[in-house]
Every structure is written in structure tokens, then in C-alpha cells.
Amino acid sequence: MKKAGLLILVLMIFVGTVQAQKITGAGATFPYPMYSKWFSEYSAAHPGVEINYQSIGSGGGIRQVTAGTVDFGASDGPMTDEQIAQSKIKLIHIPTVMGADVPAYNIPGVQDVKFSPDVLADIFLGKITNWNDPRIAKDNAGVHFPDQKIIVIHRSDGSGTTYIWTDYLSKVSKEWANGPGKGTAVSWPTGIGGKGNEGVAGLVRLTPGALGYIELIYALQNKISYGSVKNPAGNFLLATTDGVTEAAASVKQMPDDFRVSITNAPGAKAYPISSFTWLLVPVKSQDPAKGKVIKDMLSWIIKSGESEATSLSYAPLPANVAEKVLKAVYALQ
Amino acid sequence: MTETRIPKTQVEFQAGPESENGAGSEATAANVPPAISEVRRFLLSRGNSSLADGGFRWLMVICALSIFAIVVLIGTVLVRSSELTRAKFGFKFFFDQMWDPVNGNFGALPFIYGTLVTSLLALLIAVPLALGLAIFLTEMSPKFLRGPLAFITELLAAIPSIIYGLWAVFVLVPLMRDHVNPILIRFFGWTTLFSGDNLGLGFLTSGVILAVMILPIISSLTREVMTAVPHSQREAVLALGATRWEMIRVGVLRNARIGIVGSIILGLGRAFGETMAVTMVIGNTPEIHKSLLATGNTMASVIANEFSEAADDLHLSALIEIGLALFIVTIIINAIARLLVWAVTSGAPARVN
Fold first, then answer.
1. Do B311 and A191 touch (CB under 8 A)?
2. Is A116 inside a domain boundary?
3. Residue A261 forms part of a structural domain
4. With an 8 Å Cβ cutoff, is A189 touching chain B?
5. What ipTM does this complex have?
6. Per the domain annotation, does A56 fall within a domain?
7. Which domain holds residue A138?
8. Do B102 and A157 make contact, defined as CB atoms within 8 angstroms?
9. Nearest-neighbour CA in chain A from B68: distance (Å)
10. Whole domain around residue B180: which residue ranges?
């Protein structure tokens, strides 16, 4: 009899948790530390709400949310028109935070390298192959480069970081746009692949003459030095979270669906290799109760969550974008 | 019913032939001819066991068939989920060198090549080492060394592959780049097998790390097989005046060869499927190079690398078809290995007993 009582108690607890609002999301790995902080804080402030986020990658996030198996998705790259057309559920992109890519290099005896967009593109296209190339020297007056072959290091795993980098190269180089193009994984003309930010950073550190790209947050947290990049306004900028926020603020025409690339943004202080990361949320939730919670959570993120972004080295949304996003959140059903 | 009967008969059995009383034994004792042995009588006293035997047999058949079911299920999923690329590229997929997810061109050849080359290199390095180790342990090792050596070998098998990968990146890659590869380039550069950029990454380094990973599997299994060769075989060969090496060759290795080949196949299977360690040192470029110092990619590592972020249906389908290719290549290689064993052993059957 004691056992039966215990069983009933367990059942009651179980039923109790089922009645609580349980929301699942899946997608991008890049914003995962930020999201898990936000979701746990939101759950703590709202008893009965449980948000479960699985960082399975942007591709998986898009697939699951379009199939309706999760309540919201997350992606580092915007969905393509084709993907939107195929989706069973009408989705809206909600930008949350921003990240950036930085060029990391290993040239014995050389520090503080500056890169022009065309030089970066030609290095990654395999057209500039040595560090003593006059085009690199032109941007770096007074720096003596050794006669050292350039070893390009890229990501071997499909990644939002690669998406941002190739999106940028596609904008600054016609040849790149017509050749490898942009994507989470592309056909690289040259170089070798490392797995994850840590793989690329490790290979860069171990290989003399290496040039790779890594996520700004990873570089900041691991104190990896990186080069500055010339933005369209003509300034060489070292990536900072402020520079990334500036890039988003300087986008002139923010589309209503927020599917916009902010690489090569025009602002004077805008860091050129920046990007949003998005949550993919159904415009009309199948379960109205869940829809209400998601809407409340999103407005909490935009209103108070954003201020926590810099503590984790993410760039927060600029005020003008946050305002527009909030309007979109209020319009959710 | 049976639960209550078994303890009784056990007591009766232990009590010995003199004490033949007890309720359960009366019925059986009447049917049993007096000449029957004690053990037989005990077995008979448990009643008709054909039902249990039948049940046991079916249980085992189901266990065996479940292997087929698993393979068929995996095969079906691989074939069905790769429909897009199979329709678009057909058979050409397995012989094409292009891998361009952005423009939707996919071919599996560089990955098949990478998997075969790295696994073969791993076998070339690991098999002689593993055999030597096993021979030393079973035939020559002093007693005090045997335990620790066997223990350390098996310890190697328990290290997760990510640890091997990290070790390879931070220790093996600089070692190969600064010390091993320059020697290979200098003395064997003329073969063009060791030429091009010396990054420390690539096929050779992947082969070496794979060899370290499959070494414990091959050596432990080989050791087991060699220990199972009866001592009479060794003594007989020695009695004919053989030296120690001749005794090992004729008396032990010859008898154990089927088991040894089996252990090599198992090791090869691990090398084929290895993902993490390889992807960290192979360079991940879908290219085919003759030079072993060049970078490449393998089937398992491209799947692990690109699957999670493959948003495009065609890309996903291509990755699954790579899985299908891995499946097929594994079957073909295993079949070849079995044929090899069959060819070598036919005519002169191995003497295990």
C-alpha cells in the first residue's frame, strides 16, 4: 500500500510538470551560451515555464522548426527563399545578438597585421600565396614580412562562422561570389580545414604562416590576437562588440523580415565581418498558450536580456533595431 | 511448478546414490532403468526439457536474426534518405571528385580514397607491431612483464578518440612535421609518395594515429587466439628439433591465422569508422593526392563535420549517400578479406586442436 501511495505521488508530480508550460527550441550552436543564460533566467523568473534549447546546429534547427517538431528554431544564417517556401509553418526571423569573424594569423615575428578586403579575398582564393606579397606590405607600412608561404585555415565543419566569412568575401570579391560563394560549408579553393573554432585556432597556432578566421567571442575569451580589417568607410578596425553593434546600426534599410546581411556595413566605426543570429519563431503558434509564453519571453529578451550580451562577449542589438524587433514581437499571434 | 521442484532434486542429487527417498523422485525412479548414471537421472528428474530447449533455440535465432534486421534497417534508411542525390548524380556520385555544397555538386571519390588510404596505412603500421607484441606476450615475455604490458595495451583501447585527436594535434603533428617527414622526404622523396608541403597534417599522420588506435584491438585478440593454441602443438614442433622462431611460425601462427585475420578485420572496421581523431589531423580537404604528406578527407569525418549544419536537402542527401558509400566499401573490403582467408586456408585446414 505504501508503494501505491508513492506511485500516486510520483504520478501527481509528473502530471504537474506536464501541465507546466514546456517549450522546446533547437538550432544554432554559436549563440548557445547566451540563449542558455537567458532561458534559465527567464524560467527562474517565471515558475512553471520550462525552456529546453538543444544546440544541434543551424541546419537542424531550420529543419525541425519548419517540420513543427520544436516550438522555435535558431539559425546563424537567414533561411533561403526556397526554405521559406517549403516550410509548413509561417516563420519570422527575430535577430537576438550579433557576432563577428576575425582573421587570426601566425607569422613568426610579426604582429598587428592589417588586411584590405581584396587582399583577404585573394589570399583565400589562393592568388596571394606568400606573406611577402607587395599587396600585403602596402596595407602594413613599416612591417617587415618574412618570405613565408601562406597556409589558409578554414572550418572543416559546417558553421555559421563560415557563413559570415564567405558572405563577406562574396560581397568584397566578385570572383569569390561567382566561385565558392557563401554557405555554412563551401568548396575552398585553397587551405586546410580545422574542426570548430578551437580546431582552427589550434592549427593557426601550430602552423607557421597560417591565416584562419575565428569567431570573435572565441578569440576574446581565449585571448587570441587577431588582425584588423578595412571597412567600406576606409578605416582599419580591430573587431570589438561595439564595432559589431555599430555595423547593425548603420544598415540603412532594415527589411521587415530582418533577413539581412550586415557584412560590409557602411558605418565609419562598423566592423565589416559581422552578422546577426536569429531565432525562428512561428508567426501564429499552434498552441495559443505556448505562443503567449514565447511572445512574452521574446519581449523580455529584447527589453532586458540584451543588456547581458556584452558580459558574454556577444554584441547587443543597437537601439534602432531593438525597437523594430520589439514591434515585430508584439505583432506575433 | 519448476521453481519448487529444482531445489528438491538438487538436494537429492547432492545426497548421493544411497538416499533415494523424497516425494519428487518416486515417479522418475520408477521409469529409470537401474543402470543409468546419477547425472542422467538428475537431468531426467527435471522432466521434459524439450520445451525449454525449443524456447532457448528460438531466442538465440531471434538474437542472430536481429543482426540482419539492424543491417537491413540501416541500409534502407541510407538508401531512402539519399534519394535526391541518387536521382541527380546516379552512379557517377561514387566516382566524381567535386564537393561543392554551395552550387550543389557532390562526388564521393576523394572521401572513399581518403578512408582507404588512411586505413591501409594504419594496418601497415599496426599489424606488424600488434603481431610482434602478441608473440612477445604469449611466447617470450618474462612473467613479471606480461601483466603490465597486457594491461597497458588494453588501457590504450579505452582512451576516447577525441583524446587521441588532441594528442595527435599537439604532439604528433609537430613531431611528424619537424622530425619524421623531413627524413622521409630526404630518403624517399623520389617515390613522390612523400612530396609537397610538409604541414605535419595529412594521410600519413592520420594513418599513424589510426594505427595507435587499432593496435590494442588487434594485439589483444591475437594474443587470445595464440594463447588458445594447445601446448601439445608447441611441444610437438620443438620435439622435431625446431628453433623457437620456427616453433612460433609453424606451431602457433599457422594454427592461429584465422583468428589473427579476424582481429585484423575488426581493427580495420574501427579504422574505417573513426571520425574525431582523423578529422583533427587529416586537413579536411576533399582532394586526391598521391603524396602521403598531402591533406585529404575521409567519409566518416565529412559526415560528422557537415551533417549538423547542412540546411540544404541535396547536401544532406549527399552526406547520407556518403554513409551508404561507407557501408558498401566496408562490405566489399570485408568480403575481400574473407575470400583471402578462404583462399589461404583452403587445402590445408587449420589445426586448432
1. no
2. yes
3. no
4. no
5. 0.79
6. yes
7. 100-248
8. no
9. 30
10. 111-345
